[in-house]
Amino acid sequence: MLNLLKTHFGFDRFLPLQEEIIRWVLAGKDALVLMPTGGGKSLCYQLPALMMPGLTLVISPLIALMKDQVDSLKANGIPAEFINSTLSYAAINKIQRQAQAEGIKILYAAPERLILPEFQHFLKKIKVSLMAIDESHCISEWGHDFRPDYRNLKMLRDIFPEVPALALTATATQKVREDIISQLSLDQAKIFISSFNRPNLAYTVLPKKDSYDQLIELLRRHQNEAAIIYCFSRKDTEHLAADLRNEGFKALSYHAGLEGEARRTNQEKFIRDEVQIIVATIAFGMGIDKPDVRLVIHYSLPKSIEGYYQETGRAGRDGLPSQCVLFYSYADSIKQQYFIRQIEDETERKNTYRKLEQMVEYCELATCRRHHLLSYFGEDDQPEKCQGCDVCLSTEEEFDATKISQKIISAIIRTGGRFGLGYIIDVLRGAKNKKILERDHHKLSVYGIVNDFSKEDLRHIISQLISRKLIIKGGDEYPILELSPRGRDFLKQREKICLPKLKSSVQSPQPSEALATEYDMELFEKLRLLRKKIADEKRVPPFVVFGDLALRQMALYLPQSEEKFSRISGVGEEKLKQYGQVFTEVIQTYARENNLREKDIPVKRSATPRRLSHLGPTYQETKKLLLKKKSIEEMARMRSLSVGTIAAHIEKLVRSGEKIDLGYLRPPVEKFKEIKAAFQKIGGTALSPVREMLGGQVSYEELRIARLLIKS
Ligand code: ADP
Ligand code: MG
Ligand code: ZN
Questions:
Q1: Is the confidence at residue 316, as pLDDT, over 50?
Q2: Which of 89, 236, 321, 689 could form a disulfide with 231 if both were Cys (CB 3.0 to 4.6 A apart)?
Q3: Residue 110: CB partners within 8 Å, gap ≥ 6?
């Protein structure tokens, strides 16, 4: 299973409960999975789907999401499709035929399909091994997102009484849970519940005073990162989005009053990283699964703890540290009380009022916010202090920042007060950056004198010094750091300075601190642009190509060989083949220009690291078929892999020293001669020039096999 996890998804380890759930599902039994957003629910049916015969049917309510999910699976070389109303009749037909020919492993369908007689007829003709009901709370009227079409799912249980069902949701309330079980007749199902703690999210409440300035400051600090800002009314969202655009941010609004078309394009631009900020009413978020939202801001008071948890939950699905900031004023709650008083139904009015009070209580807490949230959802056994909420972090004292401040100010003076924050930090930390070397700044006395503070710490300290007016931020387009008269006095008089203890952003057991802050930001930017370019060419969201975690690892470890690159999280076989070369080229160039070296990637797998001479079961499978003399196309079909992946398997097998007779795969004599001549003429082993020379007549797979045969 670990091998499949790496080859198909690029991951080294399971997240909590994934392995247990998968084993249960493979045993053919029903299950109900309750896991928070970002917990990794999809994998619980996607991995079994690869191991079971036939097809896994996934019911999912959000049409927009289906396409992204299917694109992600395809990018990993997994044959997946979806059927919903956005497809033409012909397209649906084609997919159905493909499914009947067992050419699809995972099929997504919208719930409203299920009542169509044609669709039911189709279902009876295919082999379904597992049905997954994603967002299964949609079946319950008690949930926040009831979809009447989900009631059709009962029918599915009648059509496939023998097929195991896996229901998944991030909604944990008891009532909804019971409803799912009874509606889907899951009485025999095992219930898997994971903690609803989101360790990578930091919770902060700020007083709503000068909130606009604070908001801008916050967004500046998170430049180029995706943010969602929740506002009270539609009008508020439009005004704020316009203001932010005037400040130079890329921001759009989103609310239920927008036309369908405008909503779709705004959402699309956000998902494709064309716009960083969405200013929304709570209507936003249901339809998106963007994994790299780094900041969720509540610019007005949420209406309930449930809603707040849901909305903040959209941050950091990829597990990387992300911030949830709420601007609170009691006046906001009074504004809401006014609306609540208009509610006629007494029970509802009281209920709504109580929810608001609970929200106010949360904002005014003097104890751990995470603990409060989790006990609200019934998890009483959590620690009373965390390392990721403002209350827990603010109780820490100040520290003597005199020495470090002197160093920072000296660096600004020595470099002539002409450089920005990043450059000063690089000088202080002794980075071997090309520009520093060119300017001879590595010969300065301040070069490399700081080794006890991370980049992020230094940023933090410098911004404190700016707010205390020891340093001034000058320049217009590219801000530079200059010294103020006060800063000079500070240095001359040898004054003492104390600053609040550093809050190491959010401490989470995983991913490591290094991945939170220590990666090379400049390289990360370059990789981000490359990702965007590829994503646009392929017309998929950037996260389908690689997630932020993968890019950060690349920018931290600088992998330059295929083997090293393959160890990055999220790099499976298909992505290695598709993108390994382009990404390592960018990394190589950058490393060369900046005198940087590849670093070791810690191996966290429990299994032994992959060695070429010891190829895993997926290779052994291919080897078996090779011994049976199957054609590449046949193997691809039988294994539900792409022909490219099969060709890659064969290459790896041969290179690892396996003795396999490939003679039967040799192209016809004349063609083989031509290919051989082309390789000789061009020299080297690159495929595309050879293919070009042959006028594009030969497929890459044929060329790869021929290349092996020429060598041997
Ligand atoms: P959910 O549906 O529970 O909100 P997803 O299935 O969308 O969560 O997964 C959330 C994120 O976690 C995705 O970016 C996914 O690629 C990643 N992920 C899932 N399983 C693993 C794993 N075993 N190791 C690392 N990342 C994982
Ligand atoms: Mg999900
Ligand atoms: Zn806390």
A1: yes
A2: 236
A3: 59, 60, 61, 63, 66, 83, 84, 85, 149
> Which range (71-75, 144-148, 268-272, 515-519) has the least confidence?
515-519
Q: Cα of 395 to ligand 3 centre, how many Å?
A: 10
Residue 618 near residue 7, CB atoms below 8 Å? yes
Q: How far is the CA of 188 from the centre of ligand 1 (A)?
A: 27
Q: Which atom of ligand 1 is nearest to the CA of 18?
A: 23
Average pLDDT, the chain: 88
**What is the mean pLDDT of the segment spanning 422-444?**
92
Q: Is 42 in the pocket of ligand 1 (CB under 6 A)?
A: yes
Cβ 310 under 6 angstroms from ligand 1: no
Distance 389 CA to ligand 3 centre (A): 4
Nearest CA-CA partner of 18 in 37, 38, 42, 44: 44
Confidence of residue 607 (pLDDT cuts 50, 70, 90): very low
Question: Tens digit of pLDDT for each residue in 40-64?
Answer: 999 999 999 999 999 999 999 888 7
Distance 511 CA to ligand 3 centre (A): 19
Cα–Cα distance measured from residue 439 to residue 424, given in angstroms and rounded to the nearest whole number: 13
Nearest of 690, 696, 701, 688 to residue 662 by alpha carbon? 701
pLDDT digits (tens, 9 = 90+) for 204-238: 999 888 889 889 989 988 888 999 999 999 999 99
Best probe residue, ligand 1, of 43, 70, 200, 544 (max atoms within 8 Å of C-beta): 43
14 CB less than 6 Å from ligand 1? yes
Report all structural domains of the chain as residue ranges with CATH numbers, in order of start: 2-193 (3.40.50.300), 201-338+356-376 (3.40.50.300), 398-500 (1.10.10.10), 521-593 (1.10.150.80), 617-711 (1.10.10.1390)
Question: Which of 192-196, 230-234, 450-454, 653-657 shows the lowest per-residue confidence on average (mean pLDDT)?
Answer: 653-657
- What are the tokens at 474? 């000058």
How far is Cα 43 from Cα 41, in angstroms, rounded to an integer? 5
Neighbouring CB atoms inside 10 A of 127's CB total: 12
Strand partners, 201: 322
pLDDT digits (tens, 9 = 90+) for 557-569: 999 999 999 999 9
**Residue 704: which pLDDT band, with cuts at 50, 70 and 90?**
confident
Nearest protein CA to atom 5 of ligand 1, as residue: 40
Cα–Cα distance measured from residue 237 to residue 240, given in angstroms and rounded to the nearest whole number: 5
Q: Which atom of ligand 1 is nearest to the CA of 15?
A: 23
What's the rounded Cα separation, in Å, for the pair 707 and 712?
A: 9
Q: Give the residue among 292, 167, 280, 174 at the shortest CA–CA distance from 224.
A: 292
Question: ω before 79 within 30° of 0 (cis)?
Answer: no
Q: 39: CA distance to ligand 1 center in Å?
A: 6
The angle formed by the CA atoms of residues 596, 599 and 604, to the nearest 5 degrees, is 160
Ligand 1 atom with the shortest distance to the CA of 170: 3
Q: Has residue 435 got a pLDDT over 60?
A: yes
